[in-house]
Every structure is written in C-alpha cells, then in structure tokens.
Amino acid sequence: MHIPDGFLSHGINGATFVISAGACAYGVKRVNQKFGEREIPLMGVTAAFIFAAQMINFPIAGGTSGHFLGAVFSSVLLGPWAGLIIITLVLAVQCLGFADGGLTALGSNVFNMGVIGALGGYGLFSLVYRLFRKSQRGFFIALALASWFSIVMGATAAATELAFSGTSPLLIVLPAMAGVHALIGIGEAVITTTAVSLILKSRPDLVGSYIPPVRPSPAKDEGKVRGHREVPL
Amino acid sequence: MSKRLDGFIWIGLGVSLLMALFFSPFASSSPDGLEKVAQMRGFKEKGEAWRFWNYAPLPDYALPWIKNEKASTALSGLLGTLAIFFIALGLGKLLKRPPGKKGVSVILFLLLPLFPSTSLYAGRPLTTDDAWTVEKGKFQVESGLDVSRQDNHDREFTPSLTLTYGLLERMDLGVGSGYLFFHPAEGRKENGIADTEIKLKYRFMDEMGLRPAFAVAGILKIPTASESKGLGSGKVDFRINTLFTKNLGKQLALHLNLGYAFLNEKGGDNEFNYSLACQFILAEKWTLVGEIAGINNFNGHKRDDPLSGLIGTTYQLTENLVWDAGVEIGMNRAAPDFRVTTGVTLYFKP
Predict the structure, then answer these.
(1) Contact B298 A4 (CB under 8 A)
(2) Which segment of A99-108, A179-188, B263-272 scores lowest on mean pLDDT?
(3) With an 8 Å Cβ cutoff, is A21 touching chain B?
(4) Read out DSSP for A44-66?
(5) Complex-level ipTM
(6) CATH, residue A135
(7) Residue A135 falls inside a structural domain
(8) For residue A107, which residues of chain B lie inside 8 Å, CB to CB?
(9) B243-258 pLDDT per residue, tens
(10) pTM for this structure?
(11) Domains defined along chain B, listed by start
C-alpha cells in the first residue's frame, strides 16, 4: 500500500502531509508524557519487528501479494499514539533508505497507514472490545476485526486520494483497492492475533490494551466485578 | 509491571532479525495490492515517471554490490531491521530529553546519509571510533594522558598507549592499556596497571556515493587492573561495536558508533553504548572535533547511565605525527565531571 511518487497530486500530498505531521506532533507529545525508560526499548523492538515483517510478502489470489502492516499490532501493544509514531518511523526509513513509497507521498502513506491504520484501527479495536465487555474472547475478536479494517480502511483512503488526484476514477479504483485489500486484511488479522496471543502467553504485561479478566474475588472486593487497568495513552 | 524487559527485547530483536534474514528472501515477488491495481487500471507508469528521492542507499531492498538476489535481500533486511531498532531507540531517548538538544542531534542524524565525499580519519581525542582501518602493514601508535575528576571529586590520572596494526586491507588489530593513578577525595591513593583491551575491527562496506562506510569491532577487555585496589572489575568483558563513517564534503566527517557490551561484573547490567562524533577541517593542519557519547544499561533508572560531550582539536605535526587535545564534560552525575586529555598519534611502516 506504499504509494510511490507521481500517483498523487501535490494538493492531496500537501493536505495529507499537514494532517499527518499534526497527528505525529501531537503523538510525540502524548508519548513523551506517558512513556518512561521502560517503553523506549519496547518501541524500538516493535518497530524492528514491523519492518522485518513488512518485507515478507505473502501471495494472495491472482498474482498479487500483500504484507503485514502492524498498525493495530503496535497500537494494541503500546497505545495508538506510539503506534502512529512507529508506523511513521518505519515508513520514513522505507522511503528514505529503501525507495519503498515516495517521499512526496510520505504524508499520504502516514495518513493511510498511521492515522487511519493505527489511530482509526485502535479506535475500532477499543470500541469492539468494550462492546464485548472486555472479555478475553472479545479482545481477540476486536483485534482481528480492527486489523482487517485497518487494511481495508487504509486502502479506501489511498483509493480516495488517487481519485481526488485524478489518477483513476473513484468508482474504478475504490472497489479494486478495497477488494484486493479485503484479502490482504485477512492475513493482517491472522498475523496480528497470532503475534499478540504469543506475547500474551509469555509477557501479558507488555500488551498495554489487554485487561486480564478478573475472577470474582472472595470477600472484600465483592463490589468490583471487573478489574480496571488504565489503557496506555 | 516490575518484570525486566531486557530478555524480551533481545528475543524480539532476534526474532525480527531472523525473519528479515531467512524469510524475506523467499517473500512473494508478485506486485502488492496497490501495484496490481495500478497495473490493471493503467496508472502504473505514473509512478515510474519520476522519483523525488533518488538517494536511497538500498533501493528495493537490495545491496548493489551483492550479485545473489536472495543474499542481497536478506542482508538489506537485516541492516534495515537493525537500523530501525537503533533509530527508534535513539528517537525514544531524544523524546525523553529536555527540548533544545534534540533538534540538533535529530538534524545531524537525518543529514548523515545526504552528502558526497572524500575520506577523513577519526581517532584521538575522540572516544568514538571510525569505520576505517589502519592501512595493511602499517602501525599506529596512540599515546595519551588523561586527567579526570568525578562529581564527588575523586581524581584519576592515566597515561595510556595503544598499538594498532593493519592486518589486512580491511582489518586491523589493536592492543591498548594504561597506568592508573587513582586519587579519591577521601581514602587511600592507589595506582597500578589499567585494564587491557584487544580490538579486532573489520570494515564491511566502503563509503560509496551516499552510503556510509561500515565496520564492526569486537573488543575484549582483559582484567589486568587490580580488583583489590579498586582499579578494575577483575572480570573479562566483551563488547561489540558497529561503526559508521560518512564524509560530508571535503571538510566534515561524521562518525556514529552503536555497541553492546557483555559485562561479567556481578550485579552489573549489560550496556548499550552510543556516540556520534564530527570532525571538521578548520585549516590545513588543524581539525576541530566534537562528540556526544553515552551508555545505557536498561536497568530502568537513568542515574547510572553516563552521557557526556567532548570537544577537542588535532594538529598535524608531520605527515605521520598528529598531536591532539580535548575536554570532555559530563552531562549527568554518572559521567565524569570533566576529563582533559592530550596525546600524539604516530603512523609508521616497519
């Protein structure tokens, strides 16, 4: 989904750049407020993992491939703002170091995958998680749904940008992009839930958004049925 | 929440590196979702017409000098994963620092790969190492004299000597040690041989175009200093250091070191060390040098993670002899309050 130079008009690139830069600036502030020494190496290793995973394209139908994005993955681990920063960092390194995604389209790519993918994906995740009253099953359903939607919503945003740039008519590019990415999104959901459940098994304290279901405790805590832990950021 | 992170971080990084190394070469090479749509809907050419940023060192995840496509992808993936880990770590550190300092370092860091080049050599009085190796068959002798004072007014006075030999065109071997005079603010004065370090450095990549030179050094610390006198830890330590050097024009060179030390001291945490140095040719024989160096042991508190800045100068006495001097200022309590160093570096071929 990395848009190269030349696909988008300068107007669209400029507009998305302003939105993305604003979101990142605010994200940096939020991360700065909430993060301690402890989260920084965790951020580094999450970014490294996402970069490595994004290199592994898996084949989907019709001679097309897709790869992991990791927007919801990083948001669920470290919070949506850190997720946005991580995705932005990965995109910037891919663009500057590996010519993957255009520099003029960096604002759009950050918008599609970071703002929509990480912030939007996390919003959807917490909504669904809440609908399931923060049960363990609900956590994984929310995770899978949000991962899938993060890809499809990101692709929809990309298609919209392409259409507004006059590259391809909306009615052609939107169904095409959404269709292909509906398949890629399945891969995203599978990888995200697998990776998060592996981390949950070994180090549940690292999954910031997960609230362990609390068994009704005897005697004094009768009143509190569900444990509440603050969701990071 | 009190569990330590170290183990997880290194496992996570290891998994990521293995993924990049072993899975990425076998990734599907079919066009991705967007490329496919662009192909089918006939706007693919638009993306190939021009590229705004032509300076990516590893375009399309390939190292230009490796012929084997799979090996090339695997290695570029490995480099990218490592790079992004350290960039994220560095960025995280910068975000946690008071504003003001961060702007400059971020800009320096971002400018790192931007300029074309000739070569320039690092060395004393910097503690930052360069990615260059001593010329094959040549010797380099560095002798120095350090005076340092800790915040609690303990003083140290250390003459030192390092001998480095160019083993191969791309590899050198160095041995260095010193003699330590320790004058604590209170208590007994001690003196004795300092720890000895053996360093093997190999340069993997020459500087070419926009790509920095890259070398890896393994440093073994032999505990020759007396533990009972409190001059050393008495343990063998191993440190691995990655070195990047980039010349920016004819007058300026930047050096970046990122390393990790495995310490055997009881209760000591392993350490991650980082430093960024620049050298600027001021006049024909004079250079100005500066660096920021620090260590982080990831033990959760900052108090024992030293951070210091150094500024110094070198003067070329003859073709093969360079004099230098520098002052290092500690930016927090863990680093020495200040350190003054002066020395000479001699090159000769037997």
Answers:
(1) no
(2) B263-272
(3) no
(4) HHHHHHHHHHHT--EEETTTEEE
(5) 0.86
(6) 1.10.1760.20
(7) yes
(8) none
(9) 999 888 777 889 999 9
(10) 0.58
(11) 6-96 (no CATH), 139-348 (2.40.160.40)
